[in-house]
Amino acid sequence: AQSVAQPEDQVKVAEGNPLTVKCTYSVSGNPYLFWYVQYPNRGLQFLLKYITGDNLVKGSYGFEAEFNKSQTSFHLKKPSALVSDSALYFCAVRDGAGYSTLTFGKGTMLLVSP
Amino acid sequence: KAGVTQTPRYLIKTRGQQVTLSCSPISGHRSVSWYQQTPGQGLQFLFEYFSETQRNKGNFPGRFSGRQFSNSRSEMNVSTLELGDSALYLCASSLGPQGTNNEQFFGPGTRLTVL
């Protein structure tokens, strides 16, 4: 079975500081990894994905994520946080071996203070 | 290109009633997946439809059902509503079925409140 863990319910950073939102995963085969963001009263918006290739993936709004196979992690990062980045962030995984649906983590609330 | 649309956006029902939610995917997308989002359980997969066929189903009781039409629009139905069915129901569409590397695009959701 596949699973995703987001160990932090909440992450607080000051505007201008770098941010990291953590994600670890477990799959049988090669992982397809995704990050989504959800603003209040909105659906999820796709940020970035890792399928294969470079371990550092760049996505929307200046976000990037680093795939680390040995640590089974896919942490989301941004060099300089904005107040407008405050939202709920979801990591998701799908097993690339065969057919499987997307499994989401519980979500991490990012709070960026002015 | 228009995004995923869901109707209605908000719904209030009472226990025992049934409800139908609608989802129109992005034009050209043939896969529609449904999720239930609650504060305690997070995002839970309900089912996926691709080319009018249910490809996969999550761990929900039979009161939850769905279907997809030839134009890829999808509906989900919940019968005999319970208080615990109160949630945000999200629909997501993608070009190909789940199991591929396509990302999903989500609608704004339908907020269902069961009284």
Write the layout of secondary structure elements.
The complex is a heterodimer of chains A (114) and B (115).
Chain A: E1 3-5, E2 10-14, E3 19-21, E4 24-26, E5 31-38, E6 44-50, E7 56-58, E8 64-68, E9 73-78, E10 87-95, E11 103-104, E12 108-113
Parallel strand pairs in A: 2-12
Antiparallel strand pairs in A: 1-4, 3-9, 5-6, 5-10, 7-8, 8-9, 10-11, 10-12
Chain B: E1 5-7, E2 10-13, E3 19-24, E4 31-38, E5 42-50, E6 53-57, E7 64-68, E8 74-78, E9 87-94, E10 105-106, E11 110-114
Parallel strand pairs in B: 2-11
Antiparallel strand pairs in B: 1-3, 3-8, 4-5, 4-9, 5-6, 7-8, 9-10, 9-11
Q: Could you characterize what this model shows?
A:
The complex is a heterodimer of chains A (114) and B (115). Chain A has 114 residues and is an all-beta fold. Chain A has no helices and twelve strands. Chain A has strands spanning 3-5, 10-14, 19-21, 24-26, 31-38, 44-50, 56-58, 64-68, 73-78, 87-95, 103-104, 108-113. In chain A, strands 2, 5, 6, 10, 11 and 12 form a six-stranded mixed beta sheet that branches. Chain B has 115 residues and is mostly beta strands. Chain B contains no helices and eleven strands. Chain B has strands at residues 5-7, 10-13, 19-24, 31-38, 42-50, 53-57, 64-68, 74-78, 87-94, 105-106, 110-114. In chain B, strands 2, 4, 5, 6, 9, 10 and 11 form a seven-stranded mixed beta sheet that branches. A four-stranded antiparallel beta sheet of chain B has the order 1-3-8-7, with no helix packed on it. Chain B is globular. The A-B interface holds A 32, 34, 36, 41-46, 49, 51, 90, 94, 96, 98-107 and B 4, 6, 33, 35, 42-43, 45, 48, 55-56, 58, 90, 92, 97-99, 101, 103-109, 111.
